[in-house]
Amino acid sequence: MKNQDYTTTLIVPNSTAEVFDAINHVKGWWSESIDGRTDEPDAEFLYHYKDVHVCKIKIVEFVPNEKVVWLVLENHFNFTDDKTEWKGNKMVFEIAETDHGTELKFTQHGLTPEYECYDVCNDAWTSYLQGSLKNLITTGKGNPNTKDETLNEELIQKWNLPQK
Predict the structure, then answer these.
(1) CA-to-CA dists, residue 63 to 24, 41, 101, 123, angstroms
(2) For residue 53, which of 159, 123, 155, 161 has the smallest C-alpha distance?
(3) Do the Cβ atoms of 101 and 56 come closer than 8 Å?
(4) By three-state DSSP, how is residue 67 classified?
(5) Are 101 and 13 in contact (CB under 8 A)?
(6) DSSP, residue by residue, 89-139
(7) Could you tell me if residue 107 is inside a domain?
(8) SS (H, E, C) 13-63
(9) pTM for the full predicted model
(10) Mean pLDDT, the chain, as a whole number?
C-alpha cells in the first residue's frame, strides 16, 4: 500500500547548512507566534494561531545539516471533531546534497487523508514549506504568520503554559 503521509520536497541552490539553519528558524518561516527554543535537541516549543490551532512540539532528533524531527506532544484544532489529530505525529525534515542542489524532504508521519484537517493542513504545509521556508532559504526572508497574542485560556491551564 502506498504511504499516504503528507510529504513535500524542494530543491534549493543553498548549502545543507543554510537549509538546516532556516528550518530551525521557525519564527522566520512558520509563525512569529512561537514560544520556546526551536534550534536545539530536546527543546520544546509552542505554536499557536489565534485559537484555531495550538500545538506543543518537542525536537526529538537533531543532526546538523542532515535531519530534524519534531514530535507533536499536544495539539488542538478548533475546527475538528477528533481532538487527537496530530498528537503523536512526527514531522521529519531530511536534508541531502544532490547534483541539482540541496534537497529538503518534509514528511508529517500520521497526517493522512483520513484526518479531518488533511485538506487544510496539506494546503497550509505546502504554502509554508514550498513558499515561506523556500523563500527564507533562498532570499533570507520568509513569510510567517505574524505575531498574535490570542491564546485560549483553557489550553493555557490544560498544558500548564506560561501566562502572557
Answers:
(1) 11, 9, 19, 28
(2) 155
(3) no
(4) strand
(5) yes
(6) -EEEEEEEEETTEEEEEEEEET--TTSTTHHHHHHHHHIIIIIIIHHHHHH
(7) yes
(8) CCCHHHHHHHHCCHHHCCECCEEECCCCCCCEEEEEECCCEEEEEEEEEEE
(9) 0.89
(10) 90
Render pLDDT for 143-159 as a digit per residue (tens, 0 to 9): 998 886 555 555 556 55
Asked whether residue 1 is assigned to any structural domain, the reply reads no
Cα 137 from Cα 82, distance rounded (Å):
35
Residue 112, domain extent: 6-144
Task: Answer yes or no: is 125 within a domain.
Answer: yes
Give the model confidence (pLDDT) of 55-97 as tens digits. 999 999 999 999 999 999 999 998 999 988 999 999 999 999 9
Report yes or no: 44 and 57 within 8 Å, Cβ to Cβ: yes
- Domain holding 36: CATH number? 3.30.530.20
**Number of domain units in the chain:** 1
Whether 157 is covered by a domain: the verdict is no
Give the chain's length. Answer: 164
CA distances from 51 to 9, 111, 148 (A): 29, 21, 10
